[in-house]
Amino acid sequence: MSARRSHIKGNCEISRRAFIGTGSGLVLGFLISPKAILGVIEARADTNGLTANAWVHITPRGAIVIQCPTSEMGQGIFTSLPLLLAEELDAEWAEVRVVQAPASRDYINPVHMQTQGVGGSRSLRGYWLPMRLAGAQARRILIANAAVRLGAPVAELSTEPGKVVHKASGRSLSYGEIAAGTLMPRELPLVTEADLKPKAQWRLIGNDVPRVEVPTKVNGTAIYGIDVILPDMLYASILRPPVATFPHPQYAADIGIRPLKIDDREALAIEGVLRVVALDHGVAVIGADYWATVLGKRALKVQWDRGHRAENYDSEAVLKEFAAIARDTARKGLVRANGKPDEAFKSAATIVSADYLSEHVYHAAMEPLNATAWVRGDEVDLWTPTQGQLWAQEVAAKAAGTTAAKVRVHTTMLGGGFGLKTEQLFNEQAVMLSKIMQKPVKVIWSREDDLKNGAYRPATAQRLEAALSADGRVTGWRVRLVADSVALRARKQQWDQLKGYDVVVMSGAASTYTIPNKHHEYIHENRGIAVGYWNANGAGFTKFASESFMDEIATRLGKDPLAFRLELLSDKRGRLVLETVADMAQWKRKRSSGRGLGIAYYDGSEWNCHCAQVAEVSVDRSSGNITVHKIWAAVDPGIAVQPAHLMQQIETSINWGVSAALRERVTIKGGQVQQSNFHDYPVPRNHEIPEIEIRLLSSVEQISGGGQIGVPAVAPAIANAVAAATGARIRRLPMLPELVKEALRA
Fold this sequence. Notes:
With 746 residues, this protein is of the alpha+beta class. The chain is built from 19 helices and 32 strands.
């Protein structure tokens, strides 16, 4: 077959990749190039060479097997992505079967860092057009074949769910019947966006269907990484250094401490322990069962390398140092500016300023890191709950000393990801140990391993300043943020391309309000502690600062916080969600005694999704405890592919945000994490979850990502509500009781 490429008008290009017609059914493969994706999905820097693929297989019995290119980690993507293809194929949803796609560059997501993986709420945005075009092209081929079989002109044929019909004669052929004897055209039919269904004809998009993976989760047949069992499989636990480090196997910007001397006599005496292996960054105990490896790990006596900068890390002292750096204008960082902020501040009648701090937080995924590898010569099989299939393949190939083509990645279900499972160290460990033992090896990190040696959300200090004119206008806005870098450690190429401006840490820092002169500055401080991706990334702390500061300015000017925001906001979608959530919460109503309402807004620029929230809280002045009674949220995602699924995602991200706002923190002294499990790293229990009311809006015909949109506005809405109820302003996350009492005394 030729590799002729036919152009899709305007937005992408589609080609024949693997069209095969046989008696076993119809297989459609397709290749989408990123050319001219602009305007359909969010553009990303340097997308040359990006591809995104999806395959559909139609069996003679009418089953439609769709491969999902990304990981299912509870966000419902195993339903939402295949549904896009099924919509344009005019498939009968009950006949759809979803399978996990293998690791392959055929599955690159054009808006996800030139790789196959999931993160940043980019799955729907990346595959929205490619999967619909694939479905439309498959439908076109089915119609062409039906025309031959029925002896009817193509123009007289149409489709109904699962079949091609000729209304004039009343005849029809099911997709299975057509697939049983498909003849493939010499040239692929040209499919453009004009061939896609108009919204008025959608049967599946916008109408909820049951999530395909939920029944397996309910009946216990869903396979998570930690469930994988292979013949003659061994287990491994890894003793990591007491200092919190997390090496990154893909980049030279490594963070690790080597074991210098190992006394393994007691470990090897434990029944079931087979071998102790020194690694560059730890010590592995390998055994016949998991519990034996845990006991063996506890029995090890290890002398570690010294002199690592993280040994001196004290999180409380670091926050104070970061705050001092943020206030010190002599310390320069990397700046993104609009207008002439320096002139605005020089000519200001008043300058308002405040410092905001946020501590490290941990992912707390229910399934800790794990992977199972089986190395046989230069062939590798890797079973992993990963957010990055190609990253896992790359790391496994390097660890085994083979090529990526020899590595098969089997993506399992993920028991939570939140950015943590973009990490690859656990995959590297499993492959290295399997190669040594010449048997399948499953590496399991315990909860304590996961927490004490994590890649945490960075600790930050932010200095915010606003320039006010004599008549009360905001003429200038300045943010100076001090933190370590996620990109330097986790995506070195991105760090280099942007010359050290960390867009992950600075996510949400750019003000969306119509202030003429803005200054956003990132100051990098590398203190040796591993930091990584987290739910909503930097927006979780940047919006806490900026939206809390908006209320501080409003109070200074004697203005209502809602009215003040609307005064400075020209974005129609932003105004819509703010006005809607205010109506939902009855913003102007008389407050209940002892309760306060707080409002916050996030434009969701990373995800093309807008969210405004109002929190109702009360504060126990004697204990300092904050109770969040209710949160209202108005969200404009544009097109909601599965509205009920999206509502679930928003609700869970709000709960996540509440937990991080009120209690979650990782404290580090002498480089050692002080928390070890959920008894000292608490997350909310059911009785602590606030009532949540969500309203979805759809003001634009655009696709967005909504999995994380609930997180950023939660903390500032709560802080603003506390200030409304008590007059006390909390400028640090988490808002622990002792901080609240201190603010009440101020």
